[in-house]
Amino acid sequence: xxxxxxxxxxxxxxxxxxxxxxxxxxxxxxxxxIGKAIEKExxxxxxxxxxxxxxxxxxxxxxQFWIFHVQNPTEVLENGSRPKLEQRGPYTYRVRYLAKExxxxxxxxxxxxxxxxxxRFEPDMSxxxxxxxxxxxxxxxxxxxxxxxxxxxxxxxxxxxxxxxSSMLQNRTVKEILWGxxxxxxxxxxxxxxxxxxxxxxxNGTYDGLYRVYTGKEDISKTAIIESYKNKRNLSxxxxxxxxxxxxxxxxxxxxxKKDQVLRxxxxxxxxxxxxVFQGKQNVKGIPLYRFSVPREAFASPVEVGDNYCFCTEEVxxxxxxxxxxxxxxxxxxxxxxxxxLPHFLHASESILNDVEGLSxxxxxxxxxxxxxxxxxxxxxxxxxxQVNLLVKPAKKIEALSKVKKPYVFPILWLNESAVIGxxxxxxxxxxxSGRVQMLSLLQMVLIITGSVVFLAFLGSYFICxxxxxx
Length: 471
Fold this sequence. Notes:
This protein has 471 residues and is an alpha+beta fold.
């Protein structure tokens, strides 16, 4: 009887040990199986989950605009006062809803494509109509002295500006500011130039690219990484490594993302590559994600972050490369004095923020982030936020700018381009990817914990019985 009991207890302990060992063995075996399945579905090839999401975004992408309205135009024009700004918006457009075009699979493990640009107004997601009128900066007048520095040419420009009755500020509709209008000053210029301009003109019907990215077939660690942009690996806008096209386009990254990684991605909107660092965990529609945000250091001055030295291309606004928070992208915009920043000059130096009134930088509302599913590398939620500004500076030969006291960066608008995975896509993702990963992890833990408890319980009971027998 005693033998049977002891044998039964030892058998139970052995079974518990086997369960625990099996659970432990499942970790590398299961991870290997999942890894192979993910590698199969994460490559950009016809028929994979990655390809379907790559061809057309798996969720609706919206671009919201807040346009800065000048509340004190008379004081600005007559006295050169600081502009008092009020943001008006959002005015929302759906973008990125067209499939990639001119898709070509190449023999070197890459795939090429063009990204079509299209924007469709969404009145139900906007505060008003596209015909709302805003008092804003006159784009053509302000850009003139930067494009034409010669004094004689500026005298001619001044004549055409005056005859067109243009000034430093103007009243324009939302639609005109964003997508273009015929400028009266440019229309007076007797040279062959396009008199139409707008912050994003031309946009609808245009293309971004040519992009050439790695499919991941030959090396899964390169999936979606940009091999070249417009047939070049550099941009010709910056010096040194700042000019390189690095990372992906942000829509996805190579699979098996780690928290300590730096995720690099290229944005043609800001004419440079940038990066995100791990900020924390998120859960979107039942799917665990890693949040990577663009850190303050990405727009810091070279004095603080030495690696940013090659993004400093001018000395006035940057105060000899000591100020932070704005990026001169005029080289990317045909010489027009366009400066990019985070909304409301988030993380910018006080000297830049104090040149205007009415801004309230807020990290929660104005930061850029990507929520990435770590196993596949897919970005399932994101918010890309940036502000478009123009450099305003005095020009003695141009009367419309004669009251400007010093050069400063004038905000025009800021935007939030965002998306979150749709319900149907999220359900599919949970079933095919995250659900299976979670189920396997749960099974591993249950086996290890159950096996360990059973092993200890039966082994402990065996020793207790044996000690009683010896007594």
